[in-house]
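Example record for the data management plan.
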Amino acid sequence: MIRWATALKWLALGFMAASFSASAQQQLTEGKHYVRLKTPQAVESGNKIEVLEFFSYGCIHCYHLEEFLGPWAKAAPADVSFKRIPVFQNEFAKIYFTLDALGRDDLSIKVFKAIHDANAKLQSDKNFFDWAGNNGLDATKVKELWNSFSVNSKVNRAKTVAQNYGIEATPSVFVDGKYKLNYGQGMVEFKDTGAAINSLIAKARSERNKK
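Corresponding structural encoding:
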């Protein structure tokens, strides 16, 4: 009896979550919850729908968004390409691309926590190298990547993409080079990010199929 009641409880919660997602998607309104870019940007994802997040490790709002965006990214649809693009501060961008080159972007959340919860000054390369070593990374390899042509090229490329999109604040989330989520009171709340992105993905998918 207890097992049956528990199963019913989880089933009910599942229906509530599905209902919430459907409701969030239905209520997404152009000009309020999102805007269509006047100049659409070319995507680099081929047949996949591209979702971009422009962020900075130094941005407390990006840290708060990660609680909701991170889980969505792990379960993103197969026809979606999700990319993070670090902006505004070279040192934070180099942290991201160094971790990415090591295949350890899973440590991004720890970077956020170190900066915002522990007040770690990771924009200092020495502090970052020490932090990296304390988190199981090969400090020598980290130093090599930090100053590598590849990482510096990606930092410069990120600046160009951010300029093309007209990024003035973080976090900024775009779908398929066409739509930008509007965050704020009466617009999209962080907790509704996944449902809002999925709604715009569906819209982008539909528009692509019409071509």
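Summary line stored alongside the record: The first helix runs from residue 2 to 26.
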